[in-house]
Amino acid sequence: MREELIVKRIETFLRKNDYSTIIEVPNMGQSVDIVAQKGRWLSFIEVKLSNWSRALIQSQRHELVADFIIIAVASKSVSMGLMIAAEEKGYGVIHFNRESNRCTIAIKPRLNKKSWPPQKRILLEKLNKIKKNGH
User: Fold this and answer.
1) Would the CA dihedral through 60, 107, 131, 122 be positive or negative?
2) Quick check: 7 and 47 in contact, CB under 8 A?
3) Least confident window among 14-18, 26-30, 65-69, 124-128
4) CA 14, CA 21: separation in Å to the nearest integer?
C-alpha cells in the first residue's frame, strides 16, 4: 500500500469526524501530509507506512504552528516505542489497520503550548488561499 492511499484514508476518517482537511500543505520550508481544521484549532498529521521515528522529527518542526500534532501509521499494530514517544511529546496517534481497513485513535493529542501565533496566522492565510483556489 502506498503512502498516498493511506493519506486519503486518514483524510476521509478526519472528514467523517467533522474536520476540514487539506493535503500536502507547505509550511516553513517543508510539507505537512494533512492539515485538519476544526473551528479555530489546527491539527498537523504526518503519515507513515514505516519509520515512525522520522515522523517524530518532522512533527517537532510543526510545533511552532500546530495546535495539535498527530502521527498516523499504517500497520498491523502500533509500536510501543511510538506510543511512548508520542505520549511524552503530547502528540496523538492515529492507527490505520491495513487488515481491517479502519482508522482508530490510539492516543488523543494534547494542546501544543509551543505554537507561535504570528506563524499560525501566516499558515492560516495560506490555507485560505488554497481553499479559495479550489483545494
Assistant:
1) negative
2) yes
3) 26-30
4) 8
pLDDT category of residue 135 using cuts at 50, 70 and 90: low
Phi, psi (degrees; rounded to nearest 5) at 63: -65, -20
**Orientation of helix 80-89 relative to helix 52-61, angle to 10°:** 10
Question: Which of 106, 81, 84 has its CA nearest to residue 96?
Answer: 106
User: pLDDT averaged over the chain?
Assistant: 93
Using an 8 Å Cβ cutoff, are 90 and 76 in contact? no
> 92 and 103 in contact (C-beta within 8 Å)?
no
Give me the residue spans of the domains in the chain.
3-130
Q: What average pLDDT does this structure show over 91-118?
A: 95
Fold classification of 3-130 is Trna Endonuclease; Chain: A, domain 1 (3.40.1350)
